[in-house]
Amino acid sequence: MHWCFNREGLGGSQGEDQTVPEPGFGDDVSCPAAGPRYTLLIDSNNKAYASGFIESKFEYRGHFGVDPDKLSEGSNSWKLINRVNINGEVRTSPAFSKVYTGATGSANSGEMHSLLIDENGDVYTTGNNNRGQLCLGDTESRFIPHKISLKRPAIAAALGEDFTLILMKNGDVYGCGSNEKGELGLGSKVKFVDTPSNDNGLIDIVELSSGLNFALFRAKNGRVYSTGSNMYMQQCKDSNGEPTTTAQVS
Q1: pTM of the entire structure?
Q2: Phi and psi at residue 80, in whole multiples of 5°?
Q3: Could you report the per-residue pLDDT of 238-247, keeping only the tens digit for each?
Q4: Res. 9 pLDDT band, cuts 50 70 90
Q5: Element of type H or E holding 175
Q6: 3.40.50.300, 3.40.50.2000, 3.40.605.10, 2.130.10.30: which CATH number matches 7-249?
Q7: Where along the chain do its domains lie?
Q8: Distances from the Cα of 183 to the Cαs of 2, 15, 131, 186, 228, in angstroms?
C-alpha cells in the first residue's frame, strides 16, 4: 500500500495537491502521521522519515527531528531521522514503531513538536519545548529526538499545540507541557509541567486522542473521559465555554 500526502509535504510547490500515491517507499510503509504542513512515517526497516514545509530555518525548532543544516526553507522531501540523544549521548536511531506529529493554531511550524516510540516502548521527543512539552525537565527546544525518562513501556501518545500525553502499557497516562486550559487534567492551579506527570487520576486507559487544546481518553470499561478546552463544546458537553481542568466523563 502507498500513502497519499499533500504535495506540501512531498517537496513540490506549496499549494499543489498530491492526487495520486507517491512512489518510493514500497508496500511496507507503516504508521504515517500527518501534522500541519509536515508528515512523519516509518518504512519497512523501522526507520523514521520526515517531510514537509518550513517557512523559516530561523524559526525552525526541530519538529522534523533533523538538524536544520540538512533542511531547506520551503518544501523538503523525505529526510531520514537517523540520530537520537540518549542520556546526553548521540546515537544511531533505534527501530521505531510509531510516530506522532504536533499541532499549531498559527502558520508558524516552528511552534510544533513531535514524538516517536521505538520497538521497546521507549519514547523520544523533538521540536519546540517552550512549555516543557518534550518531557525532558526543561524548556529548551531540541533538533533531534531525545529519549525521555519513563518507568514503563509506552504504547501510544497524543500531541496537542504545546502539550504531550503518553499512554503506558499498564493503562496509566503521563502528560507534560501546558496545562493552562487543563489539557493534562492536573487541575486549575498547575499551569505547566516539564517532566512526565500522571497525577491526573486516569487508569486503565486503552486509547487517547488530542485536539489543539483538549484531549479524550477511552477506558477499558468503555467510558470516555475528556479534559482541556471546551469553548466550542468539543468535549460533547456544555460547560458554558469553561475548560475542564480534571478528567471527567464526557
Answers
A1: 0.89
A2: -75, 130
A3: 888 889 999 9
A4: very low
A5: strand 173-178
A6: 2.130.10.30
A7: 7-249
A8: 34, 32, 12, 8, 4
